[in-house]
Each structure stands twice: as structure tokens, then as C-alpha cells.
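Ligand: MTE. Inputs:
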Amino acid sequence: MSKLPKEPPAGEITPPALYLRRREFLKNAALFTGTASAIGGGLVGLTGGAARLSAGGGPGGPGGEATPLGSASPPATPGTSSSGTNARGPFVTDEARTSYEDIVSYNNFYELGLSKSEPAKNAGRLRLRPWTIACEGEVQKPEVIDIETLLRWFPLEERVYRMRCVEAWSMVIPWLGFPLAALLRRLGPTSRARYVQFTTLLDREQLPGQRSDVLDWPYVEGLRIDEAMHPLTMLAVGLYGQSLLGQNGAPVRLVVPWKYGFKGCKSIVSIQLTERQPRTTWNRAAPDEYGFYANVNPAVDHPRWSQATERRIGELRRRPTLPFNGYAEEVAGLYSGMDLRESF
Ligand code: MTE
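Predicted complex:
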């Protein structure tokens, strides 16, 4: 055990069995852009991102181009609010925001590359329009919803949330989106709906990482229905006032701020309400390492590293990790009576 790193190297969400197959990763990574050497390369990719604001192309453009979205203001200097306010509360923190450049160039999106910097380089492969989301399963009104329709249905709100990755780094991100509960209410869950399953696009051309068997594709995540209905849970379509870029999960991704970042399923094409707990991707790959709940919990270490502290991207010193990522007041009640060591 002592030989194991205290903190995971960047890019190290990988379960042990898969970790040992790095060589294969490298081979597959070469499918993208030949930048395989960046794997495990720490923060190498931090300044190399494709942070192009309002680059044109419109919302129908490829995943590498952002356009202004909604009425939110343009990107602000890190540490200031892009909405012009510095309110405290569950929906907006006054903690310094991570820079736009870091948010769009330091990513986990295995379908677009295994290193932190590759997703930004490959995001242009993702075709964002047309895009539909099949809303199905235990709902009264199943519907295939076009992304434009979804954007018309729900007013966009800015939510400034902390995001804590299971790899022990974190960011503060001003998301733009709407509460998932608004969509679920519209669909009308049946009395049998107990969980919600989210699925990423399956397309080996647009998401070439799916040619490798590093994970079972498509990427699937899930929530209990009460977690999904919680007011903090949102579907994000933008950040810093711009439409999402492919590397961040365009055109629509899940954001659940009290859970580890891997719950935030990207580039969603299906939302299915189910009676049974969904079989989620990371939980299936390594059940001892990635639980279904994945609530941020400094008291429960990952088998290979401590979860007690985290490194905020852009900062040098580590900071303590807070239970439920600092959202305990809002969400701890969802888990009363549960053993959070067992249901991790
Ligand atoms: N969704 C898909 N489809 N594929 C992924 O590899 N990575 C997850 C999550 N969603 C991932 C995904 C992980 S591990 C994290 S930490 C967050 O996305 C990272 O989101 P970001 O790149 O926007 O910061």
C-alpha cells in the first residue's frame, strides 16, 4: 500500500485492471491526434486549450466552437462573477471561479481522449446539431426532444458550483442550464419511477474513444429519483455565458455538485426513468472504487488515494474536501439512515 501514490496522477480515474492496459490506451489514443504522450502528463494541457469565445459557427457548429448563450454575460475574470453578483448560497458561491481556459482545456471525456488535453483537441468531431434526447421509460409522456425545443422550454439560469473530481482535483464553474426537475415534471414520472439513467451519444466516428474497450460504451450514469429531482441537480448547456464546448459535454450534460464529477454524464442522448438502479459505467468497471452514489466524502478514501483534501485547479495549496462537496445542508437529508461507507 505504501507504494501507492497519495494523490492520483492526473488522468488517473482508471481502475487498476484498466490502468495496467495503458499501452493499449496509448495505441488507441493515437487514433485521435497522435498526442498520446500527454497521458499521465499532469497539468501539461492546462494552458494549451482551445478557449475560443464566440468563435462563430452558431449553435449548429461543431463541438469545438462556443457561442454566446441566453442572457448571461460574457466570461468574467476568474474570481469575479460572470453574473455581476457575489451572492452566497447553494446556487452561487463567491469562491474564485476557475478560469474559462482551464475549464475548457483540462477535461475528462474518455470518448474524446484519455489525457486531460485531448478532449479539447478532438471536440470538433462532435456534431452538435441536429441533436435529440430520448426521454423514455417510466414516464407518462415519453418524448424525443430536440435540443432547440429543450432550450425554448426552460429559462436558463447561471449556477456557480464547485466540481470535485474523484481524482482529488476541483474547479468552480459558472454553469448555464436549468433544473433537471423541470424536465422530469414535464415528462411525468410514473409511480414506478425510482431512478433516472443518463446515456452519452454512442458514435465511434464522433467519439473515437469508443473504438477502444477501455470502458463499456456508451457511458451511462444514474441517480435516484429524489436526487434527480433535487433543486441543485441541473442539466447544463453552457458555462461562462457561452454554449458548452464538446469537451465539456455539449450540447447538454448533467451537473450534480455534491457528487464526484464522474456522475456528470456528458453529451446526453437519452434520459430514462427506471424501476431498477441503473448499471452505471464506472461502477461496473470497478465497483470497489466507484460507487453508485459517489457522494463527495472526505471520510471515505478511494482505495488508491485519500479523499480528505483536493487541489483546486489554479491554486498551489491543497484544501480540505468538504462532506457532500460543501452542499451537506441541502442534501444530507437525502441519505438519512444510510451507511455512507457502505453506500459510497
Ligand atoms: N461523461 C462521459 N460521457 N465520458 C467521460 O469520460 N468523465 C466524467 C464526467 N462525465 C466523463 C463524463 C468525469 S470523470 C469528470 S471529472 C467530469 O465529466 C469532467 O467534466 P469536465 O471535463 O467538464 O470538467
